[in-house]
Amino acid sequence: MNLKSVKSPNAIFFDWDNTLVNNWNAIHIAYNKTLIHMGFKKQNKSKTLRESKYSLREIFPKTFKKDWIKAKRIFYKEFNKIHLKELKPLKYSENLLKKIKEKKIIMGVISNKDGKLLRKECRSLGWSKYFKIIIGANDAKKDKPSKYPFLLALKKISKKPNKNIWYIGDTDLDLKFTKNMKCFSIFLENKILNKSKLKVKPDLIIKNLSNLKNFI
Predict the structure, then answer these.
(1) Contact predicate 167/140, CB 8 Å
(2) What is the pLDDT of residue 62?
(3) What does the alpha-carbon distance between residue 25 and residue 110 come to, in Å, rounded to a whole number?
(4) Whether residue 5 has pLDDT greater than 90
(5) Over the stretch 118-141, which tens digit does the pLDDT of each residue have?
(6) Largest Cα–Cα distance in the chain?
(7) 106 - beta bridge partners?
(8) How far apart are CA 109 and CA 132, in angstroms?
(9) Which of 27, 20, 171 is nearest to 92 (CA)?
(10) Burial of 125 by CB count in 10 Å (0-12 exposed, 13-18 middle, 19+ buried)?
(11) d(C-alpha 89, C-alpha 113), whole Å
(12) What does the mean pLDDT of the chain come to?
């Protein structure tokens, strides 16, 4: 689809990790320390990145079974030590946010990162001023790809699902999440998931965030 044929949005929601920011080092380091503490072997970074599209409350019970609450405490303890230090904005991300804000288009974040940590990271970058709503894991009844986080976000801005609501993400889970709401799905190309392997077809594929800046 050509960007020129896309109607201007009245609200734009973003995924967080690997869409606006890079915090993979912190996630991988904290998770490997958790694995070792719980008697597991370390895993490679690519596996950590593939699994991280799910929220912790989805993936930890499958990995650690009845001990998942203990593992969760260990992970958050380790992650909190380093996540702000390791946090890096992705190229073009803040320029795009500034452009959207100038156009007075509502913006928000819906992520599977814990909501409290997500908002902490957003504040540390000075980005809270851009977003009307910031929703992370545990803020809604269920996490992505469930509809609940999106429904909560739309309720807070008094909007109903439609194709003028955009969601931008980097995984097939993000696309499923958006399609479930019948909103406009945008896939941001990345090194973790090749667009040829997408199980859900997005409404639009972009190579980088500057593509959207030029359109908006």
Answers:
(1) no
(2) 95
(3) 21
(4) no
(5) 999 999 999 999 999 999 999 999
(6) 53
(7) 11
(8) 9
(9) 20
(10) middle
(11) 16
(12) 93
